[in-house]
Amino acid sequence: MKSILLAAVSALVLSACSSTATSPASPAPEAKAQATAAKTAANIAPCAANFASSGSFISGKKFSTQVPLPGVSKDTAFTKAYGSLAKTGYQIVQSDKGAGVISAAQGVSFSKGGKSVPLNVVVQSEGKGSSVAFSFSITGGLSASEDAVRDEFCRIAGEMGAKS
């Protein structure tokens, strides 16, 4: 997960540093990169601030966060979350756009019998936009870096970002 985030940040930095000419009718790549970074940054702050974990290595752990998405409709947020999960390699186990629920899973490295861990995403209407809640659980005996889980939640929330 960290390598994906680092690759995305590297691409953003490289695109912001490039000096390609564009037509006046289309926004400059730098402007697009800055707009994307602003949307991502606006959602990372509440994402990280609301991040929580509970449990232990022995009993299992649950990671969660909730992120407001002002200006992003529930349908748009759901579609963006679904696309982000699918393109990142999560297996979509079940989804219900009307309810705003996506249940996904990710395989556990080195597990015997194809063990997987669940990720649930719930998108709800909120004011003039929506909000997204993430919940990721691992069973006892498994380990996950809190930083990596938080970064993954915030990456997905950033891709669902508010309209400018």
Structure description:
By secondary structure, the chain is α+β, with helices and mostly antiparallel strands. It has a single domain, classed as Alpha-D-Glucose-1,6-Bisphosphate, Chain A, domain 4 (2-Layer Sandwich), CATH 3.30.530. Helices cover 40% and strands 30% of the residues. It is built from four helices and six strands; from the N terminus they run ααββαββββα. Helix 2 (29-49) crosses helix 4 (146-159). The longest helix has 21 residues, at 29-49. The protein is globular. The model is unreliable at 1-24 (pLDDT under 50).
Give a brief outline of the structure.
It comes from Variovorax robiniae. 40% of the residues lie in helices and 30% in strands.
Provide the β-strand percentage band. Answer: 25-35%
Find the CATH superfamily.
Answer: START domain
Largest sheet: 6 strands, antiparallel
Low-confidence stretches: 1-24
Enumerate the strands of the largest sheet in spatial order, edge to edge or round the barrel. Answer: 1-2-6-5-4-3
Number of helices: 4
CATH-derived architecture: 2-Layer Sandwich
- Fill in the CATH topology: Alpha-D-Glucose-1,6-Bisphosphate, Chain A, domain 4
What spatial form do the alpha-carbon principal axes imply? globular
CATH class membership: Alpha Beta
- The termini sit apart by 27 Å
Calculate Rg over CA atoms: 17 Å
Signal peptide: 1-21
Protein name: DUF3558 domain-containing protein
Organism: Variovorax robiniae
Keywords: Signal
Keywords:
single chain; 164 residues; alpha+beta; Alpha-D-Glucose-1,6-Bisphosphate, Chain A, domain 4; six-stranded antiparallel β-sheet; 4 helices; 30% strand; globular; DUF3558 domain-containing protein; signal
